[in-house]
């Protein structure tokens, strides 16, 4: 194969993989103490929810699949906690007087499956080590906070129990405060 053909093949594989960072190392090649895909870049911030996962298996693809499932589960948990907090604070700001109505609406909105927010999940780091016949894959994933907010707004707007209370500006403000860590810790 020519050098040009190899470069084209590499470019295709790289872009087809979703522009993810990907590397494979033996345990002896790892020189730093910090595991791959775990530094502060891979923490959630105001722009993206992020999570990491790890998978180990004798089969390379299976270790990758386990890492992806683990990272996805952590991402769902992070999003679920934020959605519950935003929903609680939003309903408090809308001053629902009826406790039964508040709890009914809160339960309905927080039971929204966080998996629906993972439509636009992106793998941002994958690193695989090979040690003593076992592949160890570390993976980091992210989803845009804008995508999550958009889906949340659609859920609030379409919920018949809360439509009359829905205020897009208030929901966006509460969501942003939650992302910025400024929300009440009640």
Strand content: 15-25%
Shape: elongated
Q: Unreliable stretches, pLDDT < 50, 5 or more residues?
A: 1-31, 182-186
End-to-end gap: 64 Å
**Biggest sheet: strands side by side, in what order?**
1-3-4-2
Describe the structure.
The chain has 186 residues and is α+β, with helices and mostly antiparallel strands. The protein contains five helices and four strands, in the order αββααββαα. It has helices spanning 3-16, 60-93, 99-110, 145-158, 168-180, and strands spanning 21-26, 48-57, 122-131, 134-144. A four-stranded mixed sheet has the order 1-3-4-2. β3 and β4 form a beta hairpin. α2 runs antiparallel to α3 and α2 (60-93) packs across α5 (168-180). The longest helix has 34 residues, at 60-93. The radius of gyration is 21 Å and the shape is elongated. The termini are far apart. 27% of the residues are buried.
């Amino acid at each position: 194969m020519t050098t040009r053909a190899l470069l084209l093949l590499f470019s295709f594989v790289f872009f087809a993989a979703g522009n993810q960072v990907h590397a494979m190392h033996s345990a002896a090649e790892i020189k730093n103490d910090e595991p791959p895909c775990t530094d502060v870049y891979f923490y959630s911030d105001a722009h993206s929810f992020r999570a990491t996962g790890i998978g180990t298996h004798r089969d390379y693809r299976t270790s990758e699949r386990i890492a992806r499932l683990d990272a996805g589960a952590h991402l769902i948990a992070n999003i679920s906690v934020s959605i519950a907090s935003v929903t609680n604070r939003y309903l408090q700001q809308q001053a629902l007087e009826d406790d039964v109505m508040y709890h009914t609406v809160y339960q309905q909105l927080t039971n929204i499956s966080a998996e629906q927010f993972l439509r636009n999940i992106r793998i941002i780091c994958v690193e695989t080590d090979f040690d003593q016949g076992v592949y160890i894959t570390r993976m980091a994933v992210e989803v845009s906070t804008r995508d999550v907010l958009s889906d949340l707004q659609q859920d609030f707007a379409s919920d018949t129990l809360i439509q009359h209370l829905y205020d897009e500006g208030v929901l966006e403000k509460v969501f942003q405060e939650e992302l910025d860590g400024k929300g009440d810790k009640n």
